């Protein structure tokens, strides 16, 4: 082929990882998706636009918790929280009548767990999330104290 650039993009074939795709020529994270189409160039489960909006760089990881609120960056992204504000965190409360409440997001799933001693936990339910306040009622609480936690499922 005598054409030095089959897709007529700004890169010659020898510097183009996608020689037949005009809008792509590079793949910084080697995931097979060109950088222009890849919404997560560093493959850390955090969309680049979200990282740039909140941190002005792509140096965060999914597990990082820069605001030290106990909620990692990936959960903050999924739950639409603010990763640099410690008051914007994922938490649940137990109200009268063993009603567990938390802020959720549609499309996510949550596992409700219960313990009588904080050492061993059992699953009560898996609940599909909805936007806003989510609730689950423990209809068969343990005798004595009940502790609850809500886990964001992958």
Describe this entry's structure for a reader.
The chain is built from two helices and six strands, in the order H-H-E-E-E-E-E-E. The chain is mainly beta. A three-stranded antiparallel β-sheet has the order 1-2-5, with no helix packed on it. Strand 3 and strand 4 form a beta hairpin. The longest helix has 8 residues.
Order of helices and strands: HHEEEEEE
The chain-level mean pLDDT equals 89
What is the count of β-strands?
6
Sheet with the most strands? 3 strands, antiparallel
Arrangement of strands in the largest sheet? 1-2-5
How many helical stretches? 2
Distance between the termini: 47 Å
For this structure, the quaternary state is: single chain
What are the low-pLDDT stretches, counting only 5+ consecutive residues below 50? none
**How large, in whole angstroms, is the Cα Rg?**
22 Å
State the secondary-structure class: mainly beta
Task: Identify the overall geometry.
Answer: elongated
Percent strand equals 15-25%
Share in helix: under 10%
Question: Nutshell version of this structure?
Answer:
The chain has 154 residues and is mainly β.
What secondary-structure arrangement, pairings included, does this model have?
Blueprint: H1 48-55, H2 73-78, E1 92-95, E2 99-104, E3 109-115, E4 122-128, E5 132-137, E6 147-152
Antiparallel strand pairs: 1-2, 2-5, 3-4, 3-6
């Amino acid at each position: 082929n005598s054409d030095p650039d089959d897709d007529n993009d700004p890169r010659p074939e020898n510097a183009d990882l996608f020689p037949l795709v005009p809008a792509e020529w590079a793949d910084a994270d080697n995931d097979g998706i060109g950088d222009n189409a890849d919404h997560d160039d560093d493959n850390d489960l955090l969309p680049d636009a979200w990282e740039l909006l909140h941190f002005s760089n792509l140096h965060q990881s999914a597990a990082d918790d820069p605001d030290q609120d106990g909620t990692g960056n990936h959960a903050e992204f999924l739950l639409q929280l603010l990763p640099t504000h410690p008051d914007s965190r994922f938490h649940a409360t137990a109200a009268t009548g063993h009603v567990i409440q938390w802020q959720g997001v549609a499309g996510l799933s949550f596992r409700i767990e219960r313990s009588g001693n904080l050492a061993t936990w059992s699953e009560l339910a898996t609940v599909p999330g909805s936007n806003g306040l989510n609730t689950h009622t423990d209809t068969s609480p343990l005798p004595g104290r009940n502790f609850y936690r809500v886990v964001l499922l992958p």
